[in-house]
Amino acid sequence: MAGKLAIGSRDVLFVVDIQNDFCPDGSLAVPRGHEVVPLINALAARFAHVVLTQDWHPRGHLSFASSHTDKQPFQTIDVAYGKQILWPDHCVQGTSGAAFHDGLNITHAELVLRKGHHRGVDSYSAFYENDHKTRTGLAGYLRERGLTRVFLAGLAFDFCVRYSAEDAHREGFETFVFEDACRSIDVDGSAAATRRQFESLGIRCISAGTFMEGKNS
Ligand code: VGL
Ligand code: ZN
Fold first, then answer.
1. What is the C-alpha separation between 94 and 163, in angstroms, rounded?
2. Global model pTM greater than 0.70
3. Which of 18, 28, 84 to mutate to test the pocket of ligand 1 (most atoms within 8 A of CB)?
4. Which residue owns the Cα nearest ligand 1 atom 2?
């Protein structure tokens, strides 16, 4: 494909869940999650519009294995809206684990979108909670701001980046994922499944490194 991607005033970068609990030493560490921070800072400098997302759970959240008897992290349970993977306690509101990584430096970010705050519903996507019904309001925000193309980077590629990208696409935004500025949890082949799903939907995975060199097609 010819021509580089020129970023303009209708483009927005979502920086997904760059929080201490998803970095090494965090309670739900994404392998090498911290590595993406410098690249994301550099990427964000190219965007006039940046949204930071923040996983933000109350104590005792339904997605925590510790909220269920005899359950371990990474087991699955059936809940009202379908299957739910159980996680270690993570990103509890107001804790240092829920804070953004210290190295994140995107002072011009215009919105911090917190998600996962309903105790009984998880929310991987920045648009819809996992019941696929409850909206966060983000689609309306983007439309009111006249933003039409969504670019994503962050953690984790196969959960919050994946479901945010799929919903952005479904909501009619042209959607791109900077794959080298993401890292995966990789539960049961979830990273490969994410790549297949992006390909079948036409969500483009692009390289932030190449984009920064201005060579992206
Ligand atoms: C995430 C699992 C649970 C993520 C959040 O940010 O990808 N994954 N909560
Ligand atoms: Zn979470």
1. 24
2. yes
3. 28
4. 159
pLDDT in tens, 71-92: 999 999 999 999 999 999 999 9
Per-residue pLDDT tens over the stretch 84-116: 999 999 999 999 999 999 999 999 999 999 999
Residues of the chain where predicted confidence (pLDDT) is lower than 70: 1-3, 215-217
- Amino acid identity for residue 103 in this structure: G
Answer for the pair 64, 79: CB distance below 8 angstroms, yes or no: no
Maximal CA-CA distance, the chain: 55
d(CA 149, CA 56): 25
Query: What's the CA gap between 90 and 26, in Å, rounded?
Result: 8
Task: Check: CB of residue 162 under 8 Å from CB of residue 124.
Answer: yes
SS3 207: coil
| Among 122, 111, 3, residue whose Cα is nearest residue 55 | 122
Which residues make Cβ contacts (< 8 Å) with residue 206, sequence separation at least 6?
5, 176, 177, 178, 179, 216
Point out the ligand 1 atom lying closest to the alpha carbon of residue 16.
Answer: 6
